[in-house]
Amino acid sequence: MGRLGSMLKLWMILKNHSEQNPIGVEALSKHLELKPRIIREYIRILQDEGWEIGTKRGRYGGYFLTRQSQYHRLMPLIGLTREEQLALYLARNELAANKADYLEEIDQSFAKIFQTASLMNTLGYNGDDRHVMFRMGPMEKLSDTDKNHYWQIYQAVLARHKLKVYYHPVSRKPSWRLIQPYAIWKHQHVTYVRAFCENSNRLLTFKLNRIGQLENLPESFERLHSYDPLADISGRIGVSDDEVIDLKLRLIGWEARAIFEQTWGGEYGIEPCPSGEGVIFTARLKGKEDVKRWILGMGREVQVVEPLSLREELREELEEMRKNFSI
């Protein structure tokens, strides 16, 4: 563990100890796997920076953090490099550009970090972010109710407590669902809840802003033993839960080059096309409807080789689209 990790862990340990319950240097040494001499040096540095670290002498003595200590004093000790500070700065601007949830609270947090680390002066920041990051495309709009639901769901995921939600699907009437929340997903700037629905007896994905009402239930749950979160998101290009497709595409032109610039989870392969033009992309992907929309977005630079049933479905879709554009 480096100095940063050791400092953070030391702070986390000290803040749980008071004058009535101090922790000795030997115990700290065991927790941090550092020599007592190093522990004392770190404590001296913290004290020099203004931390109110108390010392209690005697057989049951040790160190403790007083209530007067200010947490923001930790930041200068972290020793962020200029590159690390710049990374934080750009992350803040990307979140702002994408209209992230809780942006006001995020801005306040970043402002404290920047102020304490003297980041603005270091970078020559003049308050103009327009040259750094731009927002493109439609963004999710979350109401105060949605944000409140987000936190309740987040807490339920961690505590493994069931929720009762009144959900508004697109094509069916709204209804109450009893769910076991497993995870919160973000896809194309939209928030979803991955949960086991007891009404349907299967894993489903719920869009956050379609949850009209939410009730916290005291009943806890155990996740499915077969559930693997990494496997669940692997091979997805969207959030739909319909069939898995063994896909084979021929890509030409710009799409043949762009496919190498994308990260794919799960099983996939990219090989030169036998005809000499373009590449052959193969993958096992989840979500047929998402796959169809993705393929249609590539226009004339894609050809579906397999499965033939998907090619036929897309042909029919294109025929219907052609009717919409006929004069």
UniProtKB/TrEMBL annotation:
Annotated WYL domain residues: 152-215
InterPro entries the record matches: CBASS_pafABC_assoc_protein (IPR051534), WCX_dom (IPR057727), WH-like_DNA-bd_sf (IPR036388), WH_DNA-bd_sf (IPR036390), WYL_dom (IPR026881)
Classification via Gene3D superfamilies: Winged helix-like DNA-binding domain superfamily/Winged helix DNA-binding domain (1.10.10.10)
Keywords: DNA-binding
SUPFAM superfamilies the UniProt entry points to: Winged helix' DNA-binding domain
Keyword Protein biosynthesis: no
GO molecular function: DNA binding
The keyword Electron transport belongs to this UniProt entry's keyword annotation: no
Limits of the WCX domain: 270-321
Name of this protein: DNA-binding transcriptional regulator YafY
